[in-house]
Amino acid sequence: MLNDSSKLSSGVSAPTSVKAAKGKLPHPIAAFLVTLASFIGSSIVASIILSLIVSTGDSGKSELFGSEIVLQFSYMLLAYGVMLGAVLVFMRWKKYSLGAVGLVRPKLKDLGLAALAFLVYIGIYIILVSFVEQLLPSIDLDQKQDIGFDNAQGAALAFIFVMLVIVVPFVEEFLMRGLLFSSLRRRSSYWLAAIITSVMFAVLHLGGGEAGAGPLWIAAIDTFVLSLVLCYLRERTGRLWAGIGLHSIKNCIAFMALFIFVGSNT
């Protein structure tokens, strides 16, 4: 049972408060800039690297990267690899603590918390989407997200699964709820840190729609709600693993809907 001193000023209690966690963390402004630069810069670097490989490669490489699915998978793998690597180098250079961003030993109950949090996330998401539809009917909430793996099948699905369900959740949680939220929380209230983190996470997903279709508002709403729940898990547990689990569950269900169930009905 938690004693009174473990209750946070925000009203959210945690066994290990993010604010009180040991280890160095960057200033919130530095964390914000590093996170933003990592997301944007990694895409640019990945595009340049792939362009160089395709343009200077031999016929075998050109044939391999001639597949749109292979090209998209390679791009995402490079982008997320660069993103994670850049932040790890930054943290090592500044001697910031991995434990302070929530990379500590996981616990079995993190799985249960992730499953329970998924139900909470779905409930809040449905309510918020309904509210936005009533309040702002002009906003297009039916636009589909373009993740670049159209017509994928067979062995390609295994690679897509690894990327969407394992790599993306881990890297995004490490940056957003690990580095950014933890740094903000160290110097501000829980709600301020959670809202700033969630707004940034949502804005970064506005551009994932189909070409020429405008901002992807449905993804922004989705990721904003998801991030609020993820921030709570980070605060409540003092670890990243429940959040990574929730993010993986959400992406796994999306993967099944996009590639498995759709494929079986066509």
Helix content: 55-70%
Number of domains: 1
Mean pLDDT: 85
> What is the 3D form?
globular
Radius of gyration, in Å, reads: 19 Å
The oligomeric state of the chains shown is single chain
Largest sheet: none
In terms of DSSP E residues, the strand content is: under 5%
Structural class: mainly alpha
Describe the structure.
This protein is mainly alpha-helical and 266 residues long. The protein has one domain (22-264). The chain has eight helices and no strands. The protein has helices spanning 28-56, 59-64, 68-94, 109-135, 156-187, 190-203, 217-237, 241-264. α1 packs antiparallel against α3 and α3 (68-94) packs parallel to α5. 33% of the residues are buried. Residues 1-15 have low confidence and may be disordered.
List the helices and strands and how they pair.
Elements: H1 28-56, H2 59-64, H3 68-94, H4 109-135, H5 156-187, H6 190-203, H7 217-237, H8 241-264
Helix pairs in contact: 1-3, 1-5, 3-5, 4-7, 4-8, 5-6, 5-7, 5-8, 6-7, 7-8
Quickly describe the structure.
With 266 residues, the chain is mostly helical.
List keywords for this structure.
68% helix; disordered N terminus; 8 helices; 266 residues; mainly alpha; single chain
